[in-house]
Amino acid sequence: MAPKYFGGCDVGSTTGKAAILDENGAVVASSIVPSEIDPEITSINALEKACSQVAGLGGYRHLARIVGTGYGRNEVPFAHENISEISCHAIGAYFCNPKIKTIVDIGGQDVKAVSVADDGSVLEFAMNDKCAAGTGRFLEAMSRIFRMDLDTFSLLSLNAAKIIPVTAQCSVFAESEVISLLARKSPPEEVAAGINAAVSKRCFSLLKRIGMRPLATVTGGCAKNRGLIKALAKSINMEVAPLPVDPQIIGALGAAVFARRNGKN
């Protein structure tokens, strides 16, 4: 009998992610692709890229079960089930490390804080989707001001001797404030440290609403920003645990976990 594979697809605002599990629960493939205007196309691109990494699978239509998640999950007509990204991030992080009880998910357009129960379900959550400040889009805009790619910008603040505060609460005003600081010859690494400190404070305000329990982790693409992780750990006075997989695929991984669980049942 041919082996069964289970797929999860996270259709986000900036990227589409996919993850595939085998029958034993091992992660056999994953992918990250740019989001298209049509969420269905994004999901197909992500799943096909992941499926191409599994010998003999032959494409997403041969997956035993597919679960969609993310903002575009309702536009994935071939998914057997759609589950909220909050639940998928919770179970995805739990799958990686059952000791994780607190998650900060920094997405392209929003930030979520999630409290995880002992079985990987969601105890409580809070989100900030009213303003782009503190999101992936915000950090992308900041990196452009510094004329850097995101990878380079994520390391910049690690060399800061001190933090120059960035006080504007609006992303547009924050950009103007940063441009002014750099124009006054403020050290770029210290301004970058101020940006990361401002984002971490926004995350902290969400975490206070749900209650923080160790172990904490960060999911989403912004988890790759080492300067931000350092600032967040300082803000919450708690270790921010790394994940054994790319933190950007945690939502898709959680969807694949649900697909395997419900497919086997």
Summarize the structure.
This protein is of the alpha/beta class and 265 residues long.
What does the model show?
The chain has 265 residues and is of the alpha/beta class. It has two domains: 5-89 and 248-264, 2-Layer Sandwich (Nucleotidyltransferase, domain 5); 101-242, ATPase, nucleotide binding domain (Nucleotidyltransferase, domain 5). The protein has helices at 39-51, 85-96, 136-145, 150-156, 171-183, 188-210, 226-236, 250-264, and strands at 5-11, 15-22, 27-34, 65-69, 81-82, 102-106, 111-116, 122-128, 216-219, 240-241. The strands form two sheets. A five-stranded mixed β-sheet has the order 3-2-1-4-5. Strands 8-7-6-9-10 form a five-stranded mixed β-sheet, sandwiched between helices. α2 crosses α8 (250-264), α3 runs parallel beside α5 and α6 packs across α7. The longest helix has 23 residues, at 188-210. The protein is globular.
Itemize the secondary structure elements and their pairings.
Elements: E1 5-11, E2 15-22, E3 27-34, H1 39-51, E4 65-69, E5 81-82, H2 85-96, E6 102-106, E7 111-116, E8 122-128, H3 136-145, H4 150-156, H5 171-183, H6 188-210, E9 216-219, H7 226-236, E10 240-241, H8 250-264
Parallel strand pairs: 1-4, 4-5, 6-9, 9-10
Antiparallel strand pairs: 1-2, 2-3, 6-7, 7-8
Helix pairs in contact: 2-8, 3-5, 6-7
Secondary-structure arrangement, i.e. CATH architecture of the largest domain:
2-Layer Sandwich
Q: List the helices and strands in order.
A: EEEHEEHEEEHHHHEHEH
CATH class of the largest domain: Alpha Beta
Spatial strand sequence of the major β-sheet? 3-2-1-4-5
CATH H-level superfamily title of the largest domain? ATPase, nucleotide binding domain
Strand content: 15-25%
| Total beta strands | 10
Shape: globular
What number is the mean pLDDT? Answer: 93
Gap between N and C termini, in Å?
18 Å
What's the domain count? 2
Largest sheet: 5 strands, mixed
